[in-house]
Amino acid sequence: MNKKVLIISTSLRKNSNSQILAEEFKKGAVEAENEVEIISLKDKKINFCIGCLACQKTQKCIINDEVKEIIDKMLTSDVIVFSTPIYFYEMSGQMKVLLDRSNPLFPSDYSFRDIYLLAASADTDKRSMDGALKGLQGWIDCFEKASLKGVIKGTGADESSSISALSDILKSAYDMGKNV
């Protein structure tokens, strides 16, 4: 069965390692005949959540920025893939802000069931990803029909595009996409 897959790339860096992981995941998912879209937060205007909770009643955020378009796509996707660089052992700030702003999804009849995390870090210790994984799991736990299906820990990728030399990590992202 073909799935609607949304990949959200949260890095602001040109030629980012996490974006490269997202592209590899996409190649596999497309080859498996899924409908795949990548959204990059690189040039998106995304404001902080103000905690008003109006979205809990209306399923719409009162802040007028580019998040509405992303939330609408998240709502109707079967699979959501978050791709992030690791900064100080945590997900990127852009990813955290997007997760906070996705609060209108909480009371909705969302379609997503499968969540994936693709992460890239300069640190070579896979534990450097644990903070991001814990943060994402906290978000997933708020959506009882969704679960974490896979994680790619792209360690040892410090310079821009340096993950391209780590063929085993790229293959893992591709294979994960192919088996989504």
From TrEMBL:
- Membrane-spanning regions, if any? none
Specify the enzyme's EC class, one word.
oxidoreductase
User: Does the record bear tRNA processing in its keywords?
Assistant: no
Q: Which GO terms fall under molecular function for this chain's record?
A: oxidoreductase activity
* Pfam families (UniProt xref): FMN_red
| Tree of life domain | Bacteria
Q: Which UniProt keyword terms apply here?
A: Flavoprotein, FMN, Oxidoreductase
Indicate the segments forming the NADPH-dependent FMN reductase-like domain, all copies. 4-131
| InterPro entries reported in the protein's UniProt record | Flavoprotein-like_sf, FMN_Rdtase-like_dom, ISF_SsuE-like
* EC code(s) of this entry: 1.7.-.-
What is the name listed in the Swiss-Prot or TrEMBL entry for this protein?
Flavin reductase
Query: Which organism does this sequence originate in?
Result: Anaerofustis stercorihominis DSM 17244
Biological classification of the source: Bacteria, Bacillati, Bacillota, Clostridia, Eubacteriales
